[in-house]
Design a protein that fits this description.
Helix content: under 10%
Strand content: 5-15%
Number of strands: 2
Distance between the termini: 46 Å
Radius of gyration: 14 Å
Structural class: little secondary structure
Shape: globular
Mean pLDDT: 82
Length: 56
């Protein structure tokens, strides 16, 4: 299966999309978080910055 054809979900903590991983094969329906960091911080939404701040 090619990467672009893998199922995806949205992380409940950071809101970013993440793709299926082989280690989640048996529990994909239960996976809610994209990473261990998001799972640990599930009650504190992370602030991901998609733009870098630069001073002029």
């Amino acid at each position: 299966m090619k990467k672009q054809h893998l199922p995806t979900k949205i992380c409940k903590t950071c809101g970013r999309p993440f793709a299926w991983r082989k280690k989640w094969k048996a529990v994909w329906e239960e996976v809610q978080y994209c990473s261990e960091r998001c799972r640990r911080n599930k009650h504190k939404p992370l602030q991901h910055s998609s733009t870098s701040k630069s001073s002029a």
